[in-house]
Amino acid sequence: YLLFSFLFGYSFTLQLDSAARRGVDVVPRFRRRLAGLFVFGILHAVLLFQGDILTTYALLGLVLLAMRRVGVGTALRVAVLLTGGIGFILALAAAGGTQLVTDPAAALAAGQRSTEALQGGIGSVVTEHVRQLPAMFGTLLVQGPLALSAFLFGYAAGRRRLLTDVVGNRQLLRRVQQLGYPVGLAGAVIFASGGGTANLTGLTAGVLTAPLLAAAYAATLLQFFQTDRGRRVVAVLAPAGRMSLSNYLGQSLLCVLVFTGVGLGLAGAVAPPVVVLIAVAIYCVQLAASAAWMARFRYGPLEWLLRAWTEQRWPRLRAADPA
Fold first, then answer.
1. Distance (Å, whole) CA 276 – CA 121
2. Mean pLDDT, the chain, as a whole number?
3. What is the secondary structure of 177-220 as a DSSP string?
4. Integer CA distances (angstroms), 182 to 80, 179, 221, 319, in order
5. Which among 261, 260, 264, 243 is positioned nearest to 252, based on CA atoms?
6. Domain contains 194
7. Which of 46, 138, 147, 149 gives the lowest tally of CB atoms within 10 Å of its CB?
8. What are phi and psi of 318, to 5 degrees?
9. Is 18 found in the same domain as 108?
10. Residues 249, 255, 259, CA angle at the centre, nearest 5°?
11. What is the mean pLDDT of residues 157-172?
């Protein structure tokens, strides 16, 4: 989610520039956009996946909007302080012996009950999603500041046009790789070997190093996309990226149909390697569907609805008027 959050912050600078060129006030438009995302997020959390991120983005987007006039240096300092602050709090909790899972047997039993609920019908699935929402609020106390930090890193990169001048920033991107991979991968090993999010020491390492690893991934991809092979990959991925909101919610819908009792009911019934294969299959389906859709239309279906609400008019959907 760090890369997606980074891109959210980066795209915000593009919207600021677009509004400035047209001489319009960005505030009302962006607020409507955030309100639309919030509504999509609520529906997503209740009907499809309680771990929704759109509501968080909508709320944090108000903070980003309030910071639209800050300089690059200020944005970077606040971003570092947010990530460092969360890491420091988690480190203190770990040093104090705080345990995230005090009764593993009870946690496993709760997980089994949740799986059984998801294997029921639509009423059971929705009830389980709503039941888990309070637990998600606790997760957001950590995830929210980290997402805002990534927003601000993206905002700073957008102000410097980092993604539009890859060749000119190649030395910087290589330094990001040289720092991000060793530090980020070391943190990932500590995170995984400690039991993931169930262990505060591993979680602390992950929080502090994941931004560097994500940055290294991004730097690598940006340089790869400048090659002939990379441009061919971009051509395959770009349609899905242009309708990322539709794909985000569509992926949740497909998972509901595959894993819950609304559809095939495979939750708890397939091994982890099979889950990975299902995830790859879902993504391939989305790539094909996105390419077919974007060949005919200017926006994804949900992007079109969000744009209509944001602009208070119905934008043209088809890619070209019929002859």
1. 24
2. 91
3. HHHHHHHHHHHHHHHHHTTGGG-HHHHHHHHHHHHHHHHHHHHH
4. 19, 6, 17, 45
5. 260
6. no
7. 138
8. -70, 145
9. yes
10. 155
11. 88
Q: What is the pLDDT of residues 24-45, one digit of tens each?
A: 899 999 999 999 999 999 999 9
- Separation between Cα atoms, residue 154 and residue 64, nearest integer Å: 11
**Helices 228-242 and 272-294 meet at what angle, rounded to 10?**
80
pLDDT of residue 322: 46
Alpha carbons within 13 angstroms on the beta-carbon side of residue 131 total 13
**Cβ contact 23:165 at 8 Å:** no
Q: Supply 80's token pair.
A: 């570092």
Neighbours of 231 (CB within 10 A): 11
Inside any domain, residue 34: yes
Give yes or no for residue 229 having a pLDDT over 90. Answer: yes
* Structural domain boundaries enclosing 156: 2-164
Quickly tell me which residue has 């390419």 as its tokens.
291
What is the reported pTM?
Answer: 0.89
DSSP 96-131: TT--S-S-HHHHHHHHHHHHHHHTS-HHHHHHHHHH
- Cα 68 to chain centroid, rounded: 21
Largest CA distance in the chain: 71
CA 171 vs CA 55, 154, 224, 233: distances in Å: 37, 19, 14, 23
Residue 88 lies in a domain: yes
DSSP tag of 318: B
Residue 150 to residue 187: CA distance in whole angstroms: 18
The rounded distance, in Å, linking the Cα atoms of 313 and 295 is 23
> Both tokens of residue 38?
């919030």
Please check whether residues 154 and 253 belong to one and the same domain: no
Tell whether the model's pLDDT for residue 304 goes beyond 50: yes
- What is d(CA 184, CA 30) in angstroms, rounded to the nearest whole number? 34
Boundary residue ending a domain (164, 196, 214): 164
In a domain, 190, yes or no: no
